[in-house]
Amino acid sequence: MTLVDWGLLAASWGLATIFGLLFAIYSIETFAGLFGGSGPVAKRLSGEPGGRTVILIPAHNEEGIIADTVSELQRRIQDPVSILVVADNCTDKTAELARAAGATVLERQDDDRRGKAYALAHGRDWLKTDPPDCVIVMDADCMLARGSAELLASHALEHGVPAQATNLVEAAGAAPPMVQISNFAMLVKNLLRQRGMTRMGGAALLTGTGMAFPWPLFASAPLASAELAEDLALGVTLTRQGQVPRFVEAARVTSDAAAREDTLVQRTRWEHGFVSTARRYALPLIVSGLAKFSPSRLFLGLHLLVPPLALLFALGIAALLLVILAGLVTGEPLPALVTLVGIAVAATMTLFAWLFHGRDVLAGGALLRVPFYVLWKIPVYLKLLTGRETRWIRTRRAGEEAPDP
């Protein structure tokens, strides 16, 4: 072999090792989460939450949905659970409608510090005058299943750590194929991989809605930040402090699927935030997890190594093509075989995820559009190279004519 051949061989094994590891992490998490479950909320709930609980809802120009959200929540919760809405930088009737629906409402105006994290910090400052025992954070476009608020609060108070509900998009079989595939990817991430990771001892991911905190934790949590994925970063921070979030699968929080064009905006914000957080925290978590024999840190760090699903497969296929080309030069097929096996196993786990859990979310015909979904997401991935999204952008709600800046 020439020096060039040795260089190509080393690069091939490097790519094969990296993507073999990434696909292995994804496949193990998904397999570990395929089976079982915690059953209906009603069968898991035992008594009252054990203290006063406030559902804190940050809301920016949500006049189209806030009254329905508050009214429906009130039908689903029981004392001592109450609702606090922070109308943040609103230019519409959000505050008025939320108040009329029965919520306590705070109004906040600050053009320089906009976004959910600042709204939560404002709500916390107000709550400090009469602190509840537990705070549940919920987005204005989401809904908790009956009994979920009490279940989350009881877990958070019993264990003294954050409790995260299963966060899913409502099944929408009539939605465009690209939206269905995006919703399925969310199911794999927020249910199957979340369940698998926590079963192996990892920390639960905080997903921004349907997450409960004991007051002492919430009172000191680093909320007011400009992080694009502030919930994910908060979960990492708490895990490093030993306050490991718990996954309460029986508690459910759901939202309606976004429109096709809004799904792409939404995924851009989520995935850029995930990649930014992963770049900073994945390797330190793995190192500290190994050094301190901490499964919660180790498995959380390994989870953060894995890119979002479509990006994982797009990069994996690109790596496979490069390794195959290198193999044609060096005559060494093993790196290509390792990469191909990793992709095949991960694809099989994804198919099993669809067969066992995803058919209500993703129609069989839409499943065939997955390659086009990856192509549809190319602008999202290119922006990672040309300039990651750094702004908080509210997702447009049904019936709105244009995205709200």
From TrEMBL:
Keyword Transferase attached: yes
Keywords for this protein: Membrane, Transferase, Transmembrane, Transmembrane helix
GO MF term list: transferase activity
Occurrences of domain Glycosyltransferase 2-like (ranges): 55-161
Organism superkingdom: Bacteria
Listed transmembrane segments: 6-26, 200-218, 305-329, 336-356, 362-382
Family matches, as Gene3D superfamilies: Spore Coat Polysaccharide Biosynthesis Protein SpsA, Chain A
UniProt KW Membrane keyword: yes
PANTHER family: SLR5056 PROTEIN, UNDECAPRENYL-PHOSPHATE 4-DEOXY-4-FORMAMIDO-L-ARABINOSE TRANSFERASE-RELATED
Protein name from the UniProt record: Glycosyltransferase, catalytic subunit of cellulose synthase and poly-beta-1,6-N-acetylglucosamine synthase
Species the sequence originates in: Parasphingorhabdus marina DSM 22363
